[in-house]
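Human: If only I could read backbone structure tokens as easily as an amino acid sequence. Underneath my words sits a plain record pairing an amino acid chain with its backbone structure tokens. Take your time, and here it is.
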Amino acid sequence: MTARKINLGASGFSELRESGSLYVDKTPVIRDLIRHPAKVIQIIRPRGFGKTLNLSALHCFLAGGPGSGVATPAGAGEAGSPGFPGASLFAGLEITRDAGFCAEHMGRHPVIHFSLSHASFNRFELTHSIICSIVAGLAKSFRLLGDSPRLDPGEKRLLAQLGDYYHLMNSFGDLCMSLFSLTRMLHAHWGRRAYVLIDSFDEPFAASAKYGYWKEMEDLADHLFGALFSGNPHLEKAVVNTLMPLECCQRTGAWISTLEDPGPGLSQAFGLTEQEAVNMAADSGIITTAGFLRENYGGYVSAGTSLLCPRSVAEFCADNSGSEDVGMICPHSYWRDLDRYFTVQDYLTHMRTEDADMLGSMLEGKEAAIRLPAGASYQGLTVSGSPDFPGFLRNTGFFTGKPPAAEGDDLWHLRIPNHEVAECLREQILSFFSPRSSCFARSARLILNALLEGDPDDLGAALNWGLRTYVTAPSRKGLDFHLRFLSDHLKCFSQSDLPGLRILTREPGSGADPAGGSTSGSQREDQAPDAEICLLHDDGECGSPLTGLVLLVSVCPDPGLLADTASRILQRTQPAALFARDLFTGRKLSRQLIYSIAFSGRSCVCLGGVTDSRAE
């Protein structure tokens, strides 16, 4: 079997077609978008789902190819014919079956096509500068309009000014009217209204929310895109790609259609069906099954259709091209934290307790009922405890599921779509709840300070604060939720604050202690601890008064009995713990810290503190 070439670096339609690379035919989306009744369409899908490629295909179809939106005025025949230069890009594709549609639209429309993916910086001045540069570049690409007999001298002078970057930097009015002016000039030259295609439309808005210049960006967008979208008689249709719905579009007054969950036709254009994914693998010389691909790279639900991530499937095919034995293929995770400004790490930072419970449940493979409020925005993601984050994770592809059953309802039933996304989430969680995370390290320091001070009340308060939003990664076997919570925090101590520290964990039935001594006195009883965590210094370099520390850990099923449980554990096990500590250290102790911690869900009670131990 001859494997087809997969061009992972290309997102342009013409580049893929001219290079002979594998292309999954999604051209029917061109007809669906052109015939859609809305004048302005927001396409909301995760990155890696073909938004950029479909927009590029639409551009090539309407204008005849990249950069060809000017030269041919309306009335010049043969644009939709097989001899038209742009027709070769679509040879053999589904859209060409509709000859009448191609004759009416192929190569017959002026197009303004640009991306805002690089118009996103940590300061408004820089973002504003890049937007001016983009507009100036667009005006220069249409410089042939300067020779058009259909434009008057004033419009030609304005075109020259719009192509001057420094003029736009110093003329807010001309910048705000620039895109409107370009559509007017193209309409005059072609005799047809213009299409405007904007890729990564939300990038500057995400950056402005992240870095605190939302107001300035909102003001610029209201003027620049308001003039373009609202009541513009020279605009045929605008199609923009985003991750989140943008309020600036809604305020323009234009008829906006937000394709967050489009109908079956448009839905399948942004993603791969299972059959398309299997065919793509076969074209790459890979024999596999729909179930294998779905479990690892699919499971995304849109308009009742199960879809796979095109980028992940393409990378899988590129890595395994020619591997005919699927049993020998080890699936890799190609999923990335696909937003540059708001990530899973931000979600964990601002997470509420209910979010932590929900995320933990979903990582175990369960479905969660989540309310996704209408009007979620990037600005809302900057607010601690924002309810907008679950919706953001759905838009970025980390969650998927069924929309509300009734109109006006906001209750979604969401889950993690597949193995590679679950693995990405686990990695993010492991990274966040580790010493590398400054946010988590601050929580760990509160616990450390309370431990060293010997104050059980402060320790209980610090533990309860951390428990509110802790999330476990189920791949860590052998430890329950509360022991994982303590273990992750103790790792911060040993690496950042207490060099030379060793952490020893004993659970019931573990046999002899690490020093070879007896475990007598720590057998499992009703009020015995579920586990015993011992911290030891192997050297005296730290200079801390902590010589030995024991955490007696138990899980109490009844929250009302927390304090009583902690007290009984401490009374029953303290002598045995002291004895075990002596054996662990192998030397005399001058100071002993013993805490009894009883956990119940996301709360705990801590008793104990400093105990002198003068072993001879």
Notes: The mean pLDDT is 79.
